[in-house]
Every structure is written in C-alpha cells, then in structure tokens.
Automatic annotation (TrEMBL):
SMART domains tied to this protein: FBOX
GO cellular component assignments: SCF ubiquitin ligase complex
Full protein name: F-box domain-containing protein
Domain F-box: 14-54
InterPro entries in UniProt: F-box-like_dom_sf (IPR036047), F-box_dom (IPR001810), FBXO4 (IPR039588)
Gene3D superfamilies: 1.20.1280.50
GO BP annotation list: protein polyubiquitination; SCF-dependent proteasomal ubiquitin-dependent protein catabolic process
Pfam families, sorted: F-box-like
Source species: Digitaria exilis
C-alpha cells in the first residue's frame, strides 16, 4: 500500500524521530535515494544510527573495530570506506579471473583459486558478493564464482542465493562445464577418453540438480577427471 502524508502535510515535515525510524528500516540504495529528496531527509539519512545499523548488518565481524573509529569518523564515512576497500579487493580477484581466461574458458585451477582468493578477503560477506560479483556488468563465469563462494564458503542457503540472482537479473545466465575423463584400463587396453559437457543456468545451480555440478567444480581436475573447464554457454542475457 502506498503511504501518503497527513492532509495538508508533507513528508519533509515529519518529526525527526519518525524520519529516523523510517530511514533506519531501509537498505543502502534506498537510504541514499531518500536522502536526495530534501534537506530534512538528507539529515535523517546521514544520521550515525542509520549507517551504524547498515555497517553492522553487512560486516558484523568488523563492527567492533569500526565502533572505535566512529569516535573520529562518522558511520557513513566508515561504511563508504569499507565498501570501497571491498570493491578494490574483489576487483583484484575479478581481474585475475579475466587474465586467466583462454578463449572464454576458465580452467578449474584458476576457478578454484578465485574462490580461495575471495576467502582471504577479511570480512567479506554475502552483500559484498551481491554488489560486486552478481553484477550484470560481469560475465556469467564471474557470477558463478560468486554463487559457488556464497554456498560453499559463506554457507548461504541456496534459496537465498537464488533470490539474490533473480534480484540482480542474472539468474537466467548459463555456463557450460566441460570435463575430460581419461579412458580406463581394461584387460591391458586403455579405453578412449570420455568428453562430457553440461550446460546449466545459474538459477538451476542453486537447485538439487546443480549440487552435483558444484561438487564436481569443487573437486577440480582430480582423480578420473583429467581436465575441467568452465565457459559461457551462450551470449549473456
């Protein structure tokens, strides 16, 4: 239901405590948008209590150290600085993946290295993955790295990952997983190598059918799998 101010009143005339209560229930993008509506809303949306809540929700492990720094800097400045630091750190991982691509394909060792590198970033959380890795500006391979990291390392429920993919409009993107299995030896003869290719959408990877593929990706090129590559299945949507 759409809210409207009282007859003869304006949103800008709301009491400060009510304006703060409204701003404190919003997410980052909504706080910034609301703060651009008027001076009174900008004051409410710049309040320390608003940005402290956003910081603590996004980076709970870093909140204690930030609380000390907040005596000098405001929580909004701390949030912006932390967001930028995360952006730089994740961008380094993305660039590493890009430089490791070979004709649009990524070998499993580089794929697993990207996930390991993400795990080395202090305080990285699911919201950071959504901001930086689920972006439509990146390829489905980068989206996949974020998906896999969220489920395997951050232990985010697949249903929540699926919702985030939908919200970022990348759920329908597809990747292709290519496997080369060495032929088995039988009665002194080596059987032909086996090539297997599976095409699957990011959304399907968050379902039961995608668990097997994520498990294969998590193992990498080991045992019977001689080579494992990830590529784009088709032109990104």
């Amino acid at each position: 239901m759409e809210l409207s101010p009282a007859p003869g009143g304006r949103w800008a005339d709301l009491p400060e405590d009510i304006a703060l209560a409204i701003a404190s229930r919003l997410q980052e993008a909504d706080v910034c948008a609301l703060g651009g509506c008027s001076r009174s809303w900008r004051t409410a949306c710049d309040a320390n209590c608003v940005w402290e809540r956003l910081f603590r929700c996004r980076w709970p492990a870093a909140a204690a150290e930030a609380a000390v720094a907040s005596r000098v800097q405001g929580w909004k400045a701390l949030y912006i600085n932390q967001h930028r630091r995360m952006g730089v750190a994740v961008s380094n991982v993305i660039e590493s993946v890009g430089s490791s691509l070979n004709n649009g394909s990524l070998e499993s060792e580089y794929y697993l290295k990207a996930i390991a590198d993400l795990a080395l970033i202090a305080d990285i959380g699911f919201l950071d993955v959504q901001f930086f890795l689920f972006s439509r500006n990146h390829s489905a391979i980068i989206n996949l790295v974020g998906l896999h990291y969220s489920i395997a390392s951050l232990h985010v429920p697949p249903t929540e990952v699926s919702k985030a993919l939908q919200a970022r409009q990348v759920a329908g993107r597809k990747v292709r997983v290519n496997l080369l299995k060495l032929g088995r030896w039988s009665y002194g003869f080596r059987l032909p190598d086996e090539h297997e290719s599976r095409k699957i959408s990011l959304s399907e990877l968050t379902m039961a059918e995608g668990a097997e593929i994520l498990a294969i990706l998590n193992r990498g090129a080991v045992h019977e799998v001689f080579r494992l590559r990830i590529s784009l299945a088709d032109v990104d949507k």
